[in-house]
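Summary for the steering committee. One of the milestones for this cycle was to obtain a three-dimensional model of the protein with flavin mononucleotide bound, which we needed before selecting residues for the alanine scan. The sequence and ligand used are listed below.
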Amino acid sequence: MKIGSFETDGYAALAPMAGVADRSFRRLCREFGAAYTVSELISSKAVSLNDKKSLGMMNLTENERPVGLQLFGSDPQTMAEAAVKGMQFCPDFIDINMGCPAPKVAGNGGGAALMKDPKLAESIVKAVVNAVEIPVTVKIRSGWDENSINAVEIAKRSENAGAKIITVHGRTRQQMYAPSVNLDIIKEVKNAVSIPVVGNGDIETAKDASNMYEYTGCDFVMVGRGAMGAPWIFRQINAWMYEGITVPEPPISERMRVLIRQSQMTVEDKGEHNAMREMRKHAAWYMKGIKGAAAYRRECGQLSSLEQLYELCFKVCKENE
Ligand SMILES: Cc1cc2nc3c(=O)[nH]c(=O)nc-3n(C[C@H](O)[C@H](O)[C@H](O)COP(=O)(O)O)c2cc1C
């Protein structure tokens, strides 16, 4: 798929995930064949105030491309200014968040709250589209709640305002992350707009991805939680979609190798102290399904150095030979 100068070569993108899909994880997922990646969500207001942490989050590396900067906010002007500031980091596209349910985002009128105000949502897209030369994409939910399912309207308005891709997470804001995703709403959006539609929600296996494509007719799929502690899901999806090949789950030694690689990249990016604290949850995800996982997870929760991680991985391999 080609959007502007942003070209993709796989079947599934990595979903934006605050506190999870950082630079190292995005790079790792690209190595496993993720079609493109999206930054963690960044506050347009904080960027406009030159907040150092937010500007730091905008810093992108070559290895994670194609990559988009995801912004949230409720003011068209501030969103446009933040997008312009983001251009110094050369993103391949700007993604507008209209799905975040968190009170500190939606409570201030941004994220999923924009779905309650379609006109404002449209003017935000318009303002950002007019401010930058690169493609602007929009990530939405099915609606705010069951009584206001309006993904089709928001998608049409976004298209009208110049958005180049719509990603639909088929759940309302009220539903947060359960029950299971509503594929029908993704299909409805796909049938209503001419720009590419990305289907998102509950893809845990290559078969789930294939089902999302078949059922909704979407142009792309996006994987979030299914990639946590399992970045090889992109390789599995691509093998299935390109060649009909089922790639089995990697052996434990390979999983530990990938965990070590992610940890090393994170340490390089954030320093050992911060990195290892963040890697605790990732390490625990890599233990999923391994015999004795509960005890290993407890050890993951104590990790504070790479050395400790090496020892744990060695132990996991040895005990599961
Ligand atoms: C820990 C976590 C953080 C997330 N952060 C973001 C975010 O920053 N921006 C966004 O648009 N969606 C965010 N999401 C939602 C995901 O991008 C995705 O839409 C959702 O998890 C459904 O896809 P999945 O079932 O594949 O996980 C987040 C989800 C999780 C689990």
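Key point for the committee: The chain has 14 helices and eleven strands.
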